[in-house]
Recover the amino acids of this structure.
């Protein structure tokens, strides 16, 4: 499969990945694998900007809504699932597209990831108790000491991710970043990464508008149907967290919208910082379809 090409269209939330990738997949008669970690869950649709029925009907998509919010799923499993799909698609496709903004999952497909051993329940319980007794600061401090690389990119307000990284270190003696950036595994297909970019103000306006569209599409009702599961990691994400606070009467709807917009912008900024670290990516505006196609066709020659 040396002449086969995986094209990854990556970028921040709201940048325009879905429409761009669908246009490309239609042009090349191809299919799309999602690498948006929140679109994996079948219960989450409006708050994750899952492609519409029309978009899903225009091009075959994979790994969207294939698991439940109650399932355990990680980047290693995603790597294995993606490779199985790619092997099948490359039997009759020259080029396959992958799109999303979950950098960890993209890295898993491009570079491979080691299987992280199961964690001893005593370790997990002790760390959860530490969070309850000492707060988020204690977890942040410990992670900064044992794994400064992961500390620099992780969401420091997400205690579940902090606990995950610390428990891996305590279980294995190796930092969590070791399992993310170990020696690159060889792939028998070529990889082209296209990072989409827009002027910051343009991106922020798109994000703000998309949040309004989510509200108009029924985000509140979707959140109400999921509030019983709010403690699950799948729902510890922008859009749902703020709506849960509104539903519980802690904030107004206007405040929830404002917070979703703000937190989405912050998340986009983190994603951009992540992708800027990738020296093997070509940066293009979503409207530059010709430029993207040129990069693809050069590798297919």
């Amino acid at each position: 499969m040396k002449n086969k090409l995986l094209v990854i269209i990556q970028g921040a939330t709201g940048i325009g990945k879905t429409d761009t990738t669908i246009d490309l997949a239609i042009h090349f008669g191809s299919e799309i694998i999602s690498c948006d970690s929140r679109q994996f869950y079948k219960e989450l649709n409006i708050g994750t900007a899952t492609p519409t029925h029309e978009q899903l009907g225009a091009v075959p998509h994979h790994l969207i809504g294939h698991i439940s919010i109650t399932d355990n799923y990680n980047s290693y499993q995603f790597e294995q699932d993606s490779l199985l799909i790619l092997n099948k698609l490359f039997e009759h496709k020259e080029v396959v597209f992958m799109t999303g903004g979950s950098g960890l999952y993209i890295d898993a497909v491009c570079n491979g990831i080691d299987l992280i051993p199961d964690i001893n329940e005593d370790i997990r319980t002790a760390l959860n108790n530490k969070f309850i007794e000492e707060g988020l600061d204690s977890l942040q401090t410990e992670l900064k000491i044992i794994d400064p690389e992961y500390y620099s990119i992780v969401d420091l307000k997400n205690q579940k991710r902090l606990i995950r990284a610390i428990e891996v270190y305590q279980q294995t003696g190796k930092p969590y970043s070791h399992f993310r950036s170990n020696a690159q595994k060889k792939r028998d297909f070529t990889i082209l990464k296209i990072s989409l970019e827009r002027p910051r103000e343009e991106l922020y306006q798109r994000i703000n508008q998309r949040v309004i569209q989510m509200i108009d599409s029924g985000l509140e009702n979707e959140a109400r149907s999921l509030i019983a599961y709010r403690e699950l990691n799948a729902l510890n994400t922008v859009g749902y967290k703020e709506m849960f606070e509104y539903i519980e009467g802690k904030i107004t709807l206007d405040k929830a919208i404002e917070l979703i917009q703000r937190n989405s912008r912050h998340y986009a900024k983190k994603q951009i910082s992540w992708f800027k670290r990738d020296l093997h990516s070509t940066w293009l505006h979503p409207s530059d379809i010709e430029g993207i196609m040129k990069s693809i066709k050069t590798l297919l020659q």
The chain has two domains: 5-113+183-300, 121-180. The domain at 121-180 is CATH 1.10.20.140 (Histone, subunit A). The chain has a mean pLDDT of 93.
